[in-house]
Each structure stands twice: as C-alpha cells, then as structure tokens.
Design goal:
Layout (H helix, E strand, L loop, with lengths): L1 E5 L5 H14 L3 E4 L8 H9 L4 E4 L2 E2 L5 H14 L4 E6 L3 H6 L9 H21 L5 E2 L4 E2 L18 E5 L2 H10 L2 E4 L5 H18 L8 E6 L1 E2 L2 H15 L5 H6 L3 H13 L11 H7 L1 E2 L5 H9 L5 E4 L11 H9 L4
Parallel strand pairs: 1-2, 1-13, 2-3, 3-5, 4-5, 5-8, 8-9, 9-10, 10-13, 11-12
Antiparallel strand pairs: 6-7
Amino acid sequence: MNFDVSLPPVSLGQASTLARQAEALGFDALWTSETQHDPFLPLALAAEHTSRVRLGTAVAIGFARSPATLAYTAWDLAESSGGRFILGIGTQVRAHIERRFGMPWPASPVGKLREMIASLRAFWNAWQNGEPLQFRGEYFRLTLMTPFFNPGPIGHPHIPIFIAGVNPGMCRLAGEVAQGFHAHPLHSERYLREVVRPTLARGAAKAGRNPNEIQLSVTAITACDETEADFARTQLAFYASTPTYRPVLALHGWGDLADRLRTLAGRGVWSEMPALISDEMLRTLAVVAPQQELAEALKSRYQGLADRLTLYRAFTADPGDPFWGQLIPKMRGGE
C-alpha cells in the first residue's frame, strides 16, 4: 500500500518547499486538490523541485474545463515530471458546477465523464502518433488539430487517469476506463468492501480488464485526540449533508440522519450538525486512535483494501511537529 500526502491549500511560493520536504520524508505521491487554488500550478513547481515522488490531482474538476485544456495541461506536466504525473478528475456536484464555475450540468454525469476521458486520449494519441484528431460524442465533437497547435510527442505519453466518486456509476466507469479511483473521504471500510471494490471489478469485467489494474486511492479522516475528533465530526457532518453521498450512510442504516443533516445545511444551521455524528459513526467513518497507535489502526483498516492511502490532514514539515516523521516509518513496517 502506497502512502501518499496531500498538499495543503498554500500559495505557490510555498509549494516547491513542501514538495521537496514531502519527497524527503518518503511519501510515494503528492496530491493537490481544487479548493482555494488551481490544482495544476503547484505541480509544475513540484515537478521541477522533486525527482521521485509521483504528482497528481485529487482532484481537478473536469466539468469546469474543456477536454482540450485538460489535455494540454496534463501533457505538459507529464513531460516536465518525467512521467510522474497522474491526472485525477472529478465531476463535483451540480450546485458547484452551475453556481461556482458557471458551467452547465450534464444530463448524464457518468456519460459526460466517459466522453471526457475518451477525448483526452484522442488528443494524446493525435499528438504522440500523428494521427488525426477524431472524436464525436454526445457532449464533445473534436476534429481540428493543425500542426501549429500540436505540441508533439513526449517521452511518457501514457498518462494515468484516476476518477473520483462515491456511487456505483462512477465506480463502474473507473473499472471500465481509468487507471485508478479516488474514493471520497466520506466512506467506511464496509462501503469500500461491499460497494466500491465489487463495482470496480464489475466495470473492469465489462471492459475485459483485470480489476487489479485499477488502483483504489483512499483518503482517511483521522482523529488522535478530542480536538481532532471535533474536527472530524464537523467534516463528516458537512459531507454527509450532501445528497450525493447519502448512500454511504444509508448502507449503515443512517439514511434518515443524512436527510436531517441536509435539512440543517439547507437552513444554514451548521453549528448544530457536528453533534449529530455519534461515537459509532465517528469510529465507522474515521480512524480514531492515539497518535502512537495510528499507523497500526490505518494498516488494520486499509491494508489489502486500498492501494494508495492519504490522510485527510494538512501536511506540514515543521520541525516542531514530529507527526509525519514518526508516522511514516511505522507505515513502512518499522519503528
């Protein structure tokens, strides 16, 4: 199981330093997200200042971009990183696509993401192999690529694509067409075992692929003390209020609570929501353990289930904070 880290939402001036520190600590991959900053710009700096660690987005919002802009950016990052780049894309939810990004929400999110992935590969094939750009679908029609706009071949043209999701539709799609699946932080071990893994396998079987070729990347919410437990309850309540994520709670018989959280969120009563996350829910949806026991708790839950593991925790390499320096050797099996 690879042990990865997420770059916190920092300024570009800090990105290269944190990337170097993450690589020096021994992480396998460095992920960026699309929250307060562009997810790609820090990776351009990270590629320049590292040599081993994988670099990827977890995730960039696909529906906020055209296939062409995604294709060009991924191509440049794959080339500049020496083939270490992983393109992680997600759909976001309708409200954000329409009201934050000002883009249309598709009739079929799975269908549009399927076409987006196929069109990305059509661009890359045209650039690498000199073949005409030919992609026609319901959402995209891409047939124009003149030499002036063609960046040409690169040394590492096979860019892995990870997609993010919660529900079976996206899991199946990942099994069919992607190299990896970013599971949402709102998950349980049971949901991964009973829903995500089997659905990835069904998608792979439909496409005639080996399901072992699709990596499951998991971000784990953790709590090592009461302060972190309070933060975890807040994040879990926020995520659980989103209708798209209701099936995770419903699997455990908590569907009514998800509906109640959604009502409170709709009314803007955020302060009342964390208290609804019971101790049972906290321990089911997050890894709760003292810091000295956290590595074993993480391995107990995810070893053999996840291929890549990231913590839902801000990365800092502050010498006064020994958290990461102590955790990584234990995750590797040593003390």
